[in-house]
Structures are given as C-alpha cells and as structure tokens.
Amino acid sequence: MAMKKLTRIGLAQLLILALAVPAGAVCSAVETLTVTSAAAVGITQSKYLPTSGIFKGMYAKKAIGIVETGAIRIWYKAGETPTTAVGLLLQPGATLKLEDADEVQNFRAIAVSTTAKVTLAISH
Question: In what order do the strands lie in the sheet with 88-90?
Fold first, then answer.
C-alpha cells in the first residue's frame, strides 16, 4: 500500500513541529497553506473540525506552525483580519502557536508581498 504524501517540509521543520506538540494533544492533521497578498486565508475547516474519523465533531485544541517561505502577517482573534500592512509580522523560519480552539478557528494569514507557505500541525 502506497503512503500518501501529506506535505513537503524539511527535516528541521518537521522536528520543530514534532517537539512543539503539547503533552496530551494528538497531532491529528497537517496543513500547508499557500498564502498570497490577495486575501487572508485560514486553516481548512475540515482540518480543525473533522467530519469523520476519531475526532469527528471535535474542534482542534491547538496548532503550531512554521513560516517556510515569504513574510506573512497573521491574526487569530474573531472579527479581525490581517492586511499586507496590519497584523503580527512573521518572517520565514518563524514559528507560531495557536493556544486554543478559538485561535485555531480564527487564524488568518496574508502574505506581505510575495507568495508564502506556512505549515501547521493541528492537534485535538
């Protein structure tokens, strides 16, 4: 049986993600977001609120991520959306932690100029 490739990240980034998963949490999904400067994007709903499997109907409790390429601005509070000029600025190599279900749901990222990539490990 062939293994499904989830994402392409470097060994160092994978180690950072593995070490950062909180005790008692299970890394249940990985998502790589392609972030542009056209519009803010968030985590895919089926990743933080699965519709099947053992976490069906359960909101993710936490997520950690790493900015792989390109500078981004983020926001993670309800009702707020980052722009190319407003939001928390993260450069490539920066890590981020979303500490509760609300932050995971409300996370948004936008690229400052060039297309960026962010890989997130989502935990239930």
Answer: 88-90, 72-75, 108-111
Domain boundaries, the chain: 25-123
List, for residues 88-97, the tens digit of each pLDDT value: 999 999 999 9
Which class in CATH covers the domain with range 25-123? Answer: mainly beta
**Residue 95 in contact with residue 62, Cβ under 8 Å?**
no
Report phi then psi at 6, rounded to 5. -80, -45
pLDDT value, residue 1: 41
For residues 101 and 104, give the distance between their C-alpha atoms in angstroms, rounded to a whole number. Answer: 5
What average pLDDT values come out for the chain (124 residues) when binned by 10 residues?
Answer: 48 57 72 97 97 93 95 93 96 94 97 96 92
| Sign of the four-CA dihedral 103, 57, 16, 91 | negative
